[in-house]
Amino acid sequence: MLATVAVVVIAVVLIATAVAVVVSDNLVHSVFWLAAMLITTALLYVMLEAPFLAAIQVMLYTGGVITMMLFGVMLTQRDPGSRVPSASEAPGWAAPVALGLGATLLVAIWTTPELAALTPTPSGDAQKIGHMFLDRYLIAFEALSVLLLAGMIGAIVLARKGDA
Amino acid sequence: MDVRFYLSLAAVLFVTGVYGILTRRNAIGIMLSVELMANALNLNLVAFGRYGAGALGQVFAMFSIALTVTEVVVGLGIVVLLYRSRHDVMVNLASEMKR
Amino acid sequence: MTWLWFFAKIGVALGIIFSLGPVCIMGDRKISAWIQGRVGPNRVGPWGTFQPIADILKLMMKEVIVPDGVDKVLFLGGPLIVFIAPVFGYCVIPFGNQIGEEKLQVVNLDIGLLFIMSVLSVGVYGITLGGWASNNKFSLMGSLRASAQLISYELTFGLTMLLVVMMSASADPLKSASVDLSKIVLHQAEYGWNIFGGATWWGLPSGLIGFVLLFTCAMAENNRLPFDMAECEAELVGGYHTEYSGMGFAMYMFSEYCSMILSASLIVTLFLGGWSFPYLTDPADHSFLAGVISIGVFFTKICIILFLYIQLRWTLPRFRYDQVMSLGWKTFLPLALVNIGYMAVIGVFLEKP
Fold this sequence. Notes:
By secondary structure, chain A is mostly helical. Chain A is about 75% helix and about 0% strand.
């Protein structure tokens, strides 16, 4: 019971922060709302019995990604001052398209009988995840590390000063 | 609490991200919305991991997190480059390739 | 009864932070005076010991000036975040042995080490936020430097923690590594401290290097001199807290000491055996007296590390910014990688069943 209430509260906060990311008219506020949303998602992961992933999420997303985003905002800021206008202009069809997509997804979710039949299973702890990474999904894991290296080199080459 | 609740939540987050992409004009604002959508995807994976797939869901969520990080790194590199050449990061103004 | 224990443990954990914080401020001033051949604060109370209280009272009564054109919410939120993060981190530190059934640790998380890492990464937001919201070029420079420095040193930090996890796996008969901090401490109490290589003789160089790396990285993450690029008053006026006054400044200052205490506890937990000391504590003894002794041992160890921190602050000159970066990326990161590689390779070859 308590867990259900907690999940619902987290869900409400999650949606509120997500909307704030999208509609906030100051880009830096947007970034911080995104940080809040990612941390809330980590809480939801804890409720889904994936605490390891929750810690990874906070560490990587809020520690790495958000800091990089902040750098991005600050480096590409044109006007002086602590306000960065996010410059949204809503085309008239944006809201209908989004709402339509959402309605389609929700209908699909709630009319698929297979989903209702799923029951909770143990999520698996860090040890099991590690075994999967280095056993069954080793090739994907290695490919991912190559991709990360490629991304790093790509970013360095792109952002380097001089002959770009 | 069944899996459809989490899936619906993820769907709402995803749609919010879509709306953000459609309305934002600032390249970084668009990247933030993409993050939002990626996060909704991860939530789906973890929810399915809890309901049926076991540790597999978390493994794939972790793959997806790493992919997103790469995307952000390269994307920000491009944005910084865009700013350096145009002193602006509004995507609707960056349309030289069309001409 | 469980609730009583829970609150008692929170009390001890908060007590360690909030009692050591002012002691640290006092110690900082007294030791700096001692190193520089001055007298230091000596007017308030006996030998000036009430000076921190007077400082805090003064800062509380000062006006909080919110400069024109700043982002008010972020400006006031920055100090709060930076203040809360280390307190949060403290709830997974095991500060003593078990008493009866109760582990002396506020929450016993399986992912304790990762939790600390994530809390540390959240802490830098306070600095980034405050510096950016101040609407001041020097503050912005300071906060950008702080974030860049934190990202750079967090890599080495994480790799060194990985080393600790590997060490606590090496002698375990079940070979099950753990990121649970209380298990890491128990392992050290059983087989030997990680600074001396844990359970094995060939781990000694690895342990020593790991300790030095963790110690230095923690210093860099706390923005302490010689790594205080974020403040750097010679170049940046006051860095990220240039625009802060009164309580805002007090919270930034106090949080620096809080995160220092958290780092010191982490170093003690990971490398110096936590609450254990040979012949003084016994991991199997769960009596009340043994628990109190273990808390005392832990406290003493933290104080020694804190003294080292303060002493180093007043002994070493500040690095230049590019030196900090090249030290982090070109020296520490490869060193930590080689260290882990050594541990892994030797661990596989020497410990092969």
